Queue: 2 jobs
Job 1
Amino acid sequence: MSQEPGPADARQAEDVDTSHAVPDPDPANTPEQEIAIEQAFVDRVYDRVDVLRADAVGDRDAGYRHLAATVPGAQYERDVFVYRAARRIADLDSQHEGLVFGRLDFDDERVRHIGRLGVRDEEYRTLLVDWRAPAAAPFYRATAVDRQEVARRRVIRSFGRSVEEISDDLLNEDAAERLPVIGDGALMAALGRKRTGRMRDIVATIQAEQDAAIRAPGRGATIITGGPGTGKTVVALHRAAYLLYQDRSRYEAAGILVVGPSAVFMKYIGRVLPSLGEETAALYSLGELYAGVEATRQDRPAVAAVKGGTVMLPILRRLVRQTPPEAPSELRIVYRGDVFKLDAADLAAARARVFEKEPRPNLAKTEAGRALLVALWRKVKPVLPDAEPAKYSRDVGSRGEFLTFLDHWWPDLDPAEVLGWAGDARRLASAAEGHLKREAVDDVAASLREADFSIPDVALLDELRILLGVKRQPRGRDRIRSWDGIQEVSTAQDRFYDRPERQARDAFYEDYAHVIVDEAQDLSPMQWRMLSRRGRAAGWTIVGDEAQSSWPRPKESADARRRAVPSGRLHEFHLTKNYRNSKEVFEYAAEWAKPRLRNIDLPEAVRETGIPVESKSVDAAALLPELAGAVAEALDAVEGTVGVIAPYDRHAELAAVVHDDRVTLVGPLESKGLEWDAVIAVDLDAVAKSHGPGVAYVVLTRSTQRLKRIDVA
């Protein structure tokens, strides 16, 4: 590629033979000799990257020293020069670890190395092909059935700049006479490595069906389905990196939004995109999509089912029309010596007339003032028949006491304040009449009286933000600029070469170019409405598995999704291989789930460990010592992480045995999308009863090596 990565390098790489970079293969070579060959190539790439980085640092420093630029056009060019150099340095630094990870040997003896970046040599010939480039696609898609002219595929595993291990797949058996074949398979080795509590990128081990989903067009909607462990989440994240590479101007300027189910999940995936050199995508959990709120609390399933349902729409519409609790109930005005009064009934009628003309209260202040003046005029006219309407309106409407009353009677409302009104069961019952039973009203009101917001509350806050009315701020670049009183229209440089300005993207930003939704099967209709506002003109990537759903009314959610996602081209991909669970773990989970879940998607587990699932039933008094022993045993058995997944009402009790950094205690809903080397599932029947069998199925499929189930009798 050029000094800075880009799609153009991918196109050119297809026409460049990189066989000059490596010696001819010798089938008699030992693994050590092959590692030495790859090490020599890796050294050459890193040496070239060092040169490119030094050049970029020089360009940046030269730009900083260019202080003499006083003409605005020259200042702009200097700033662009510095920005591009700094961006080049950041790209090279972020991809330094494991820069070269793949090699393709073709039937015609061409050789192509694949890496995290595209790199060209001193003569501008391709040295390394970016993994997102079309030229790299055969590395992921070639199979023994469809070889795409690939004779051998090699995965190179490095630590720092040192090649530690290589692993080959021979796709053309006739090439065995000229190509050495080393190793036992990179994918299986990667799957067996310990988990660290953070999701890793998979650029070296992407499989063909995953690669097809990653490279789907960005326009329209891409639906990625598959059972547990099929890599849906990591595919979606690599898709974000691929889209940014393919059309950086569009996706970096307007933004890519990645939405996950919980803050725990977002922390888990948080390093994947930066490890791929992409820092610009916005990552939000469903509890963070309202500015100033970071909700982590889970409601009881029955309450969450009410808050997330479309039944809340008419309730919220009624709620915003209620009189604020602190609003005055009477208006007295002296006009031409007489006292005129509007009582509570008059004010209620005036409020109703306002909403007939403008249903959004925060945009109806002027209309509210007009309604009060009209209501007062109807009192004034019979008493003072000679009064003039225009003069009356100017006099009364400009008085300080009238404007003060208006501010208190019709204040600007905050969504959090209005949702708080519903914590009063009487107010909520009034708004919910004909929609909710009394028991549901009491449960929802009790939840809204909590000190913090729950995750389902965030969608309600966002709905209220729209119902109350948002005063839009003008946005966009002013193409007529002024210096010292002289206006200058945009230049040709601005019009033809300047990339679009990146807008500030807080939780309310609504102009994303692409929205990626993970664990989509769990989204409530209200959450789909919230997301639809962020992606009004976006492409969508929707990832999920219906069998793992925690939402009790899937048809309602599916209808909401269809309304949220713009109609257009639909690309569907189904992932069929379970790379997370061992065969022993997944077969146990599948046998548990099959009689309890309809239309369950059961992928094929690709590896075995020989370690069976353990199951034990204890009484409540013996739970703590049993769990303590299970945790200690798991820590001894695995090098990586241990997850304890238990019902929420047991967390306070079980926290006493979680005192190792490698052990995490989470609830069943937070476990979605996560994985551990060993998992201890506590009281699975209680999880299934409270959250449904789909969530219990999730709990059983989080382990990569060992699973123990502890039931409470």
Note: Residues 1-16, 475-503 have pLDDT under 50 and may be disordered.
Job 2
Amino acid sequence: MKRIHFLFLFLFVQLSLQAQFNRGVQWTEDGNGYRRIENKEIIQYSLPDLQKTVLISAKQLTPAGKSEPLTVRSYEFSEDGRKALIYTNTARVWRYDTRGDYWVLDLDKNTLTQVGKGRPVSSLMFAKFSPDGKKVAYVSERNIFAEDLATGKITPLTKDGTTRLINGTFDWVYEEEFDCRDGFRWSPDSRNIAYWQIDATKIRNFLMINNTDSTYAFNVPVEYPKVGERPSPYKIGVVSANGGATKWMSTPGDPGNTYIPRMEWANANELVMEQLNRKQNQAKCLYADVKTGRTTEFYTDSDDAWVETKSSYSWADSPAGWDWLNGGKEFLWMSEKDGWRHLYRVSRDGKTEKCITVGEYDVIGVVRIDEKNNYAYFMASPDNATQTYLFRVKLDGSGKAERMSPASQVGSHRYDISPNGAWASHSFSNANTAPMNEWLRLPDHKALKESDDITAKLAAQSSSKKKVEFFRVKTEDGTELDGWMVKPDNFDPTKKYPIVFSVYGEPASSTVMDRWGTGRNGLYIGDMAKDGYIYASVDNRGTPSPKGRAWRKAIYRKIGIVNIRDLAMGAKTLFAQNSFIDTSRVAVHGWSGGGSSTLNLLFQYPDLFKTGIAVAAVADQLSYDNIYQERYMGIPQENREDFVSGSPLSHAKNLRATQNLLYIHGTGDDNVHYQNAEKLVNELIKYNKQFQFMAYPNRSHGIYEGEGTSRHLNTLFTKFLKEHCPPGAK
């Protein structure tokens, strides 16, 4: 989930938006209906009439001898639709609930049977049917198993899994930075399973200390490769679904100095995979013959900074999947090779390619590939980087991209489009308009129900004053930045008000987006505008805004430098253009990467920023994980000075007595380690810099565990801000 995802404000916003946007839709195979979980049942709706049918009843989901149905977290159907695999009783692994129990409901026999009997409770991961529906494979305790559904026989396909030799799933850093979790794939003919094996035996444990849960403190080890450390070596293997020896693929290069974030079946006899070099600035596509293990390179993409992988942007099928066209003779690839992020249609041998989204704009994410009707649906925003709209383009590259989102709906959109391209679940919001949802007919973008019609609802709204105002500023360096501002209630431009900046600043996310939640502070108790604060944010170079490759890659080897200067110069320009800002009352806050930016802004630009609240910050870039930090900064053995010069630790001595700093960190943070806090505290002590510090015992990166934690954190934030950056007009 990368460092941004626990920036508190955006965690709150993103989770609430996800609940709005993601309706739990699972499309029917023909695309003319969808399924979802409702009231402990699985319901199917037909389109366009939205007629409801109970597909799987609560009674069918109730195990024999039990009075209550299973709590369904997710489900999938076999390819013939006659069996359902139910995921329940889940448990968290790092960030998500990816362990649990699985049951198979046979719709013909009306039987509900648990798979993986004899395995520990809630230990099964990523269970899935074989294509022929006769078996289910899953990971349990880092080994892969295949279970015959007719006989109940469980066959271990790997037996060497340990806490450090991981089969069919991934170590901490692959999950965190590549979104890799499910680590095995059924072959199309149901005969074999291909899987990753990650060897983390040489990755050192980072030891966190639990001082509160027993009389004697104990260590909590986390396998964590720090920047500059070699990655966990990998292997890609293929094993028969009936068991036996694994055939290992002969991947080129050093597996302890490269990565494979993607692997799929190309056909029943061949795998396709993407391999990154250590610096992640070259991607090689490989075919592997599963019988001989021999690999062949067929396509390469490279960048002077870094190459984005499929997990870097929104794609309809997540990081998994290889998007084949023309019966497997071609595939889709995303690249920034012409200065913009575009979709390319590439021949199977990699020798010919054609850009199908031509123009000076970025593809933000792919929503649906509708090969039958020759369309790719994608999100983009050529004219305003803070917004997102649906476009479609001919898959054969003939013609220009066509905007589908209505011109009257100005803001941010999200779509889930049916496999046949005829229907869509659509959500819309902007910073001043709460999320609205509707079911659509495509391509005319017409609501199925008049009562849900977003266009009509927007037309009927009163034209009240916009609370969140967007702006653009050009800094003295000539860089144009997007920003937003929320002014105090009863604003008087002849008076002066304190300003509070919300920042992030790193390549994992942007803070200036025209969508619901922008302009709200999830840490402040009360209403900042009512209390008399200006609340604002600007978006620096290096964030993933759809402004072209040069914008995004400007931060390469300069985290903590170029982004911090942009944020500071953006604030300086804002002050010069708005006399109502009280420059003696300027505060900044951020979480994770935003915490790092907060510290750097205070330390590097003390004339501009007077008060800062930094949460879970990376104080020393040499303390973070290798995949993230090396992707954006290089390898410290080659350019250590860049890591040092961009770290808040190197500038802590510049904190002034007239500035106010509150630093907050959880001691159980397995992402940005508490080590960062102690290093920073030591440096501030060394130079006799006075500040306020709060450590939350055993809390993780999100600082939410434990009774009263969120209330305490919110109170602390609000009290410190009001004391050191008092609200109200002067």
Note: Confidence is low (pLDDT under 50) at residues 1-23.
